[in-house]
Amino acid sequence: MDGSSEPRVATLAEPESIDDSYVRDVLDRQRVNDFYRGYLWNFEQNVFAIHSTLSEEDMRSDRRRREVEERLQRSLERLAGKHAEFVVSGVPVTRSRVPKLLDQDQRLFVGAGVLVFLGVLLLFFRHPGQALLCLASVLPAYVTTVALIGVAGKPVTVLTGFIPIIILVVGGSDIVHLLSRYRRLRAGRTENSAAVISAFSELATPCFYTSLTTAIGFVSLVGTRIGIVMDFGLFTALAIFLTYGFSMTLLPVLLSFYVREGLNDRGLEWPWIQAIVGSAAALASRPSRKVLAAFAVVAVATLGLASTMRVNSYLIDDLKRGAGVRRDLIWLENNGFGIYQVVLFLRQAGAQPLHHPEGLRWMEDFQNFVAGERVVVNSIALPDMLRQIRRAALGGEEEGVGNDEIAETTEEAEYLVFLAESQDAAFLSGVYRPAEGEAQVIISVRDAGSQLMLPFLARVDRYIQENPPPGGSAYSTGTVKLIQNYSARVLRNFAPSLLLAILLIFGVMSFMFRSLRQGLLALIPNIFPLVVLLAAMKICGYDLKPSTILVCSIAFGLAVDNTIHLLGRFRRAVGEGFELEAALRTSVRDSGPAIVMTTVVVSAGFSLLILSRFEVLFLVGFLTVVAAISAAVADLFVFPSVIAATWRSRGRVAASIGQVIGQYDRSGGLPGHHRSASPGRASWLTRFRE
User: Fold this and answer.
1) 347 and 453 in one domain?
2) Looking at the structure, do residues 166 and 295 belong to the same domain, yes or no?
3) DSSP of 222-234, one letter per residue?
4) Number of independent structural domains in the chain
5) Alpha-carbon span 85 to 328, nearest angstrom
6) Rounded to whole angstroms, how far apart are CA atoms 616 and 619?
7) Whether residue 300 sits in one domain with residue 166
8) What is the rounded CA–CA span in Å between residue 681 and residue 153?
9) pLDDT tens, position by position, 370-399
10) pTM score > 0.85 for this model?
């Protein structure tokens, strides 16, 4: 700027002059400089950062990323002492650590899931051989599913990693009903082959429909339009049908080899099971409106809690807060480092360059606008970079000495750009590429949740619309905006996806029972668990977000199974000539033990997910247990009263119609009318009565 042909670029500290007082002086003068604060140190200057990058080749290699991360971690463990704490973070570190957590969860779910599966079957059936036969009929479905995932070229993710639990749970639920029926027949001295044929032919259709409705719950996840969730939903639905296929073909073949006589059914008669089923059967014998009234009060109360849930999602939602990767990110953020970014991208539209004084003032005005936002840590743009060059060129780093102003002319700005690029060609490339006519304002933000982030992004877009940049265009983008908008879209699609799943399951059950009324009736005890788990989320302080809406689809698909078996047994009892109360009591006594057992199977299997380091799996495990228990209570203690109420209402309607028909018979026409009988009237009345 003084006519010299050599640009002078000031360094932050000259190596030969570094001492404690010099460093303190430099840090104190640069404490609030946005060019460094939040990047090299925090405001208090008690946390400092060292930045480094991996080569493109290393970034593409999983093995190399893991190797670098592990070596860094070992080095820092030797350096760490009581006076300092070291944290390694960044994209390569996260991409190295998350797969290791997935590997640990995968081993846990497969190993512990098999043990829980065997343990529950042994607890109820008290026969190691049959428990192993059941396991042998389920494992092929898991192996086949994993093979198909590999053939499709899909990686193992947080979600697909717990498909083994779902296969064991769904397969275990069907097997409990099948084996319960088989053992009852054997206990009644039925020959082995006849018991196998009878049990599997009787339950093949109900088990098919339970598998179908469960699969529909998972397929509804396709509505989220998120690749990882769509893959999980489709592969899980496929795994469920594979499990059904192996259970219905391999298991009866394996059981056909079991010819031992004297098989007892003691495992189904645990005192606590009989107490639960006995209480439900007694209540079913005398269905009461008080039960329906109490159920309605609970449903309204839980619905009220569920309706107050807050929608809020974070950028890092999958991992628990105590997990190492997320803990380190939260630590960095709490110490003033902006590790997430929103980018305002600008493009030159005419001959006027973006470094024109008007363009520079627009960028600075925009920075001042976002500076007051709660989510913003700091921002960097072309004016900040040129200001650094101006200070160095004028021979001073201190603020307020006349070198902090934006360039007043285009020529001055061009000369500052020239100084920067002649010293380092890449110096401005992070915020400005003059040859391409592109610039960006980088806004570092906190992961404050969608409750704050989405309104902030909306205000940014509104500011751009109301104050367009001179001589160009601008729009906001960046990973933060993409993730938040994606999450918002998932939440918007949640209700339609769940409604579609409910309608499909209603259609399946109506077709199964050949009755729209019974299909609608079967939805009552299955929508109730959804409301309960939403209320439980509210009580436990969880927000509605993409990882929690996943639970609703899973829980709804699993909850329908017990209703299908109970309503199917009730229909058979009515078909056998039982009166209403007797049919209800019989259906509860016959299906009740298996419903209790399948609830234990589901709860035990999904409770393993609570041990996962991923919050999404923890929530799936915890909330599915809540939904399974509430579904069992609704099916055993409330559903019989619902059936009785609708059955009696239908009886009153039929009686009224019968009175009208009787009067029609006596009068020869409708009440108040007289007409001669027609030849087809008798046969028509017979059909109408039927």
Assistant:
1) yes
2) yes
3) GGG--HHHHHHHH
4) 4
5) 11
6) 5
7) yes
8) 67
9) 998 988 888 889 998 888 888 777 665 554
10) no
508 and 611 part of one domain: yes
| Residues spanned by the domain of 680 | 649-689
Give the Cα separation of 662 and 458 in Å (integer). 69
- State both tokens at 68: 């670098």
CA–CA dist 402, 425 (Å, integer): 27
> Per residue in 577-628, pLDDT tens?
888 888 888 888 888 888 888 888 888 888 888 888 888 788 888 888 888 8
3-state secondary structure of 39: coil
Instruction: Answer yes or no: do 449 and 518 share one domain.
Output: no
The span from the CA of 289 to the CA of 168, in Å, is: 38
Q: Give CA–CA dist 218/214, Å, rounded.
A: 7
The CA distance from 50 to 313, in Å, is: 30
Same domain (yes/no): 222, 82: no
Give a yes or no: residue 220 inside a domain. Answer: yes
| % of the chain exceeding 70 in pLDDT | 86
On whether both 293 and 431 belong to a single domain, the answer is no
Paired tokens of 615: 């919050």
CA 521/CA 543 separation, integer angstroms: 31
Token readout for 498 is 């769940």
Question: Torsion over CA of 37, 38, 41 and 46, rounded to 10 degrees?
Answer: 110
Handedness of CA 665, 667, 671, 677 (dihedral sign): positive
Radius of gyration of the chain (CA): 34
515 and 627 share a domain?
Answer: yes
- Per-residue pLDDT tens over the stretch 63-122: 888 888 888 888 888 877 767 788 888 888 888 888 888 788 877 777 888 888 788 878
- Any bridge partners for residue 442, and if so which? 343, 380
